[in-house]
Amino acid sequence: MDKKTLKKLEFDIIQTRLSELTYFEGGFNHVMEMVPLSDYELVLKRLDETEEAMEFLRYEEPTFFSNLNLIYSQVKKARVRGILNAHELLDIYYILKASRIAKKSIDPDKYKQLGLISFIIEDNYGLQNMISKAITEDGEVRDDATPQLRSIRSQINTYKNRIREYLQSFIRSEHNQKKLQDVLITERDGRYVIPVKQEYRYDIRGIIHDESASGATVFVEPISVVEHNNKIRSLQLEEKREIEKLLLELSSEVALIGDDLLNNLQCLSLLDYIFARGKLAYKQNAFRPIINHEGIIEINRGKHPLIGEDAVPLNVEIGKKFDVLVITGPNTGGKTVALKTIGLLSVMAMCGLFIPAREGSKISIFKSIYVDIGDEQSIEQSLSTFSSHMKNIIDIIDKADNNSLVLLDELGAGTDPTEGASLARVILEKLQAQKAKVVVSTHQSELKNFAYQTERVENACVEFDPVSLSPTYELTIGTPGQSNAFEIANRLGLKQELVNRAKELVPETDREISEMIRDLKDSRYKYNTLVSKLELDKEIIEKEKKELTRLKQEFFAQEEQVLKKAREEADSYLRGVKAEADTAIKEFKEVLKNQDISQDKVTRWHEIEESKQKLKNISIPKPTPKFKKEYIKSNDKAEIKLGDYVFIKSIKQKGYVLEKMQDDFLVQVGILKINVDQDDVMLSESPEARQSKMKNDSFLHKAKSISKEIDLRGKLAEEAIEEIDKYLDDASLVSLDSVRIIHGKGTGALRKAVRAYLKNHHHVKEFRDGHYNEGGFGVTVVELK
């Protein structure tokens, strides 16, 4: 696939945008050398790499690529026993540091393809540590790089301090100040001097090192500091020799592992390139295409990557039911954009890039892609637009085969319409015979007929709105484009009789075809309108369904409240009656004890009997069917033991068995103790057992399904807070100790809202930003109570 074809598809702009996402020159070079691949397995491998890079980027940014430079010249210099300076050694240090972090950060079990690259990286922490101890991040040799260097620099500082102290005392002296141009100490050629007025140059004993441009000032080194300055110069020479010795030692170490360093550089460059592909996919909201080598293209809502979100989504397919697609429509209607989108997305996928189209979109691997798009007029070769197009097309016909994708823009244009249409048809027949996949745009009406009459050739059109006189840029497959010249002319003010006369001059066959296309579009419009109406009705029904569900839930909630209130009132009544009965029984026993049974007491006994009868006749509101499900269906004759939870059929209440007698049980119902016949009870599930079962079921379900992280990127703050609240409840239920909330970096608004909410949450013990291997500022790690 030549560079000229890629440039016509504007692939060079994709390369530029991708290169801007690399960290250093190594990744940049890979981007600029990127070409489409025709090897099916290799394309799948590249797409796997991009997918793993996107997964890695979800959690952290690979900032270990920062500060990297190419080190080919440094390694070459070290191999010939050259001495690398501090900045060159610092470049080596950053390569070693990035290699170690990359190898540590990329888990080969999680990232298979990236792991294969990081696996061959050699980690040499020894040299990295040596350089780190010798060189600062500013590219300077450290004072404590060696004991000798520390001693030398300490002496230099001591002598400098002494000189400064002496000179400070000298310039503060009132006797000397009149002789000085400025009250300051400066340096000339590494020696401390003072600025003296020209007229006093001989009044101060010392060495003159320099004078000002005007000659008014001379810079004198007083004789009393000459010896100290000489000592400093001597120590500086020793310092230089010690530094050269140190740099030579480090350079020798670099030479020993030169091959490993270059190998690491290549690995880091490749990783930088791969991560740039992942970042581009996020930036373009792109998805992984499904790759095939059968010539099938199915793009679902694809967008031209250089137009972005403003692009009209393209739905197109070729290779299944047909191999040649003929696109017709008005000028500026988007035919050329459609061709470029098909070609560019195919090229991107073959480079291992994700494409801005819906998931499930299919792209075929082609051995070659041929393009004839745009104005091909050549002044240098004295070729007209038509001649230049024909020259390109002839070359395409000679090379195209069953592994080729051919994109032809305005086929048959630039010459006599009849002859142009005939040539266009012959060209398409030839390309079809060669089994190439062809997408062509044209104005030739004859090619519409060709598409109707020929197997595996299909019509398509770029839609046009005759009311607004503007294209919609939507591609419709199965319908040819319709000429809108008469409608446009009429809308612009051409008299109706002239428009009618023009219609009469159109050949009958063309009129019939035009009417057929119009009827077909009307039918399609009616169909689409009906589908839209059905979708709207479906949406309304769904809303009504949700509202009915809500009302049903409210009804059951109110029903439960009513039943609860009724039970409370019944329990209160029962407690009152029992208290009254207990009092009466107590009084009756006292009467029996004293053998003093009066008529009043007998009457009181009858009242007790009536109270007992009332207890039996109390009607408890009948539970709704959903409460009936709480009862255990068991055999009435099942053995009932002390402590069992039972259902009393006559009064429809539940209680615990306190005592088992010969023919009945003593049952605790609320605060009452009631004697009940054995045939009047049946086993039931206790509230404790039911609650424990429900809790265990909920716990097991959540424990199996809950993740240790929640992804909130792309959500509004209010929506995110609702999800966090439920998620933290679930996480606390299954006793997670910590969780990660992924909110991304972005503008920081979502991060701020999340952290504000977490401050007062009852499940939260503390929270912090993620470490670099946890997602950095794009993740908040929460410790739960």
Can you describe what's shown?
- The structure is a single chain.
- This protein has 785 residues and is an alpha/beta fold.
- Helices cover 52% and strands 16% of the residues.
- It contains 24 helices and 23 strands.
- The protein has a six-stranded mixed β-sheet, sandwiched between helices. The protein has a five-stranded antiparallel β-sheet with strand order 18-17-16-15-19. The protein has a four-stranded antiparallel β-sheet with strand order 1-2-4-3.
- A hairpin with a 4-residue loop joins strand 15 and strand 16 (653-660).
- The protein is flat and about 135 Å long.
- The two termini are 61 Å apart.
- 28% of the residues are buried.
Write down the oligomeric state. Answer: single chain
- Stretches where pLDDT falls below 50 for ≥5 residues? 377-382, 595-602, 618-637
Question: What's the β-strand tally?
Answer: 23
Helix-strand makeup class: alpha/beta
What is the beta-strand fraction?
Answer: 15-25%
Q: Strands across the major sheet, in which order?
A: 10-11-12-8-13-14
Question: What is the count of helical runs?
Answer: 24
